[in-house]
TrEMBL record:
PANTHER family: BLL2464 PROTEIN. Residues 38-241 form the DUF58 domain. Pfam families: DUF58. It comes from the Bacteria. This is Uncharacterized conserved protein (Some members contain a von Willebrand factor type A (VWA) domain). The lineage of its organism: Bacteria, Pseudomonadati, Campylobacterota, Epsilonproteobacteria, Nautiliales.
Length: 277
């Protein structure tokens, strides 16, 4: 991705965040950056995600946790940039991830929240400390857009451990195509975790195109695949099976999530995720 295209991406994201977010919603997101205060009995209209199920089970009545909001959120954007992110028919998933990161970064800065990012693959490659400086967003987008993903595998285990070490309760965005093994159950007990799945339509629903010579983006090994008949049918079946497992894991772990394709507008999808459109 050229420096000119990165600049266009940043201008677009900044304009959307600072001009198009409704005035009565100063922040794109509202995180769980709160101190626990007390429990009270559930009332119609309360957020069911705040129900304390252990207390509810013991008292046989639904109870929710009440919090005192902190003055600012700690927003952490974590990118998993393994080889499979180097793919896209409309644009590369890596480029989409950079734009999403820019939107989240500008939203944090606009709301005077702390912003930081972590760039990961088989290990940590880049990160910054929490800051409110707008230049950090540009550094984030450039780091993601220029990162060499080919030949790198995804190590979600190390990423999860790295994020768990963040002391202050944070709203953690994990941006990845989530092709791999991961477990966010423990992480989601400490932080508010939001998974943003970036995909290309073709990798989920490829058209019949016969024999193709493909290269594994993580190992760089080439192989021939017949994208026809039963092979194509089984591939689509496995993708749906894996995604079903992914969604179930997110729900069980209390992780909010959305999927954004390379042909879609990420700003709109993020507004929908946080209930602002």
């Amino acid at each position: 991705m050229t420096q000119k295209n990165i600049k266009k991406l940043l201008i677009k994201a900044k304009k959307q965040v600072f001009s198009e977010i409704p005035g009565n919603n100063p922040s794109l997101f509202k995180g769980e950056g709160f101190d626990f205060v007390e429990l009270r009995e559930y009332q119609p209209g309360d957020d069911v995600k705040k129900i304390d199920w252990l207390v509810t089970a013991k008292l046989q009545k639904p109870y929710i946790k009440l919090y005192r909001e902190e003055r600012e959120l700690n927003v952490v954007v974590a990118f998993m940039l393994n080889g499979s992110m180097f793919f896209g028919t409309k644009r590369f998933k890596q480029e989409l991830a950079a734009e999403i990161g820019a939107i989240l970064g500008f939203a944090a800065i606009k709301n005077q929240d702390n912003f930081s990012y972590i760039l990961f693959a088989d290990k940590e490659y880049s990160s910054i400390r929490p800051t409110k400086h707008i230049n950090a967003v540009q550094k984030c987008a450039e780091s993601v857009a220029k990162f060499v993903t080919l030949g790198k595998s995804a190590n979600f285990s190390q990423l999860t451990q790295r994020l768990f070490k963040i002391r202050r309760k944070s709203i953690v965005f994990i941006i990845s195509d989530f092709f791999g093994e991961y477990d966010f159950k423990v992480l989601a007990k400490k932080h508010e975790v939001v998974a943003i799945v970036v995909r290309d339509r073709f990798e989920e629903d490829p058209t019949p195109i016969g024999f193709m010579n493909l290269i594994d983006p993580e190992t760089k090994k080439s192989f021939i695949v017949d994208f026809e008949g039963s092979t194509l049918k089984n591939y689509k079946k496995e993708i749906k099976k894996a995604d079903s497992k992914m969604y179930e894991h997110f729900k069980q772990s209390g992780v909010r999530f959305t999927k954004i394709y390379t042909h879609e507008e990420p700003f709109i999808k993020l507004l929908k995720l946080f209930g602002q459109k």
